[in-house]
Amino acid sequence: MKFILVLFAVVAFVYAEQYTDRYDNINVNEILQNKRLVMSYVKCLLDQGRCTPEGNALKEHVKDGMQTGCKKCTDNQRRGARKVVRHLRENYDNYFKDIVKKYDPKNEYEEIYESFLASDD
Question: Which PANTHER family match (predicted)?
Fold first, then answer.
């Protein structure tokens, strides 16, 4: 399926060839266990709600992450991105599909991000 919230854990600003590690210590498990927090990020991504600074950074980099297979991500961000996508597919599939439609409406990047999601680098 689709890769979308790669940057839940990546919520970062681009610096040179890699996203900053400023948000690498975000507790992804804590966010995923809290429906209110998950929905806050989802609504931010869909332009249906307010965004925190981290949410704005996420919105800024979702498409780039999809296009590049998270090439600019740190190792922690890659692990977190995979975990987030699995969780969204299993628990928020309708929202997941809406986010994919918004950031990859023509499925141009599907092969790239699916390959990233399938790997364990």
Answer: CHEMOSENSORY PROTEIN-RELATED, GEO07322P1
Q: Mean pLDDT over residues 88-95, rounded?
A: 94
The 8-class DSSP code of residue 48 comes to: S
Contact 11, 54 (CB under 8 A): yes
In the chain, what are the domain boundaries?
Answer: 28-118
Higher-scoring residue by pLDDT: 44, 18: 44
**pTM of the predicted model, to two decimals?**
0.78
CATH number of 28-118: 1.10.2080.10
Residue whose entry in the numeric block shows the structure tokens 């925190």: 52
Round the average pLDDT of the chain to a whole number and report it.
84
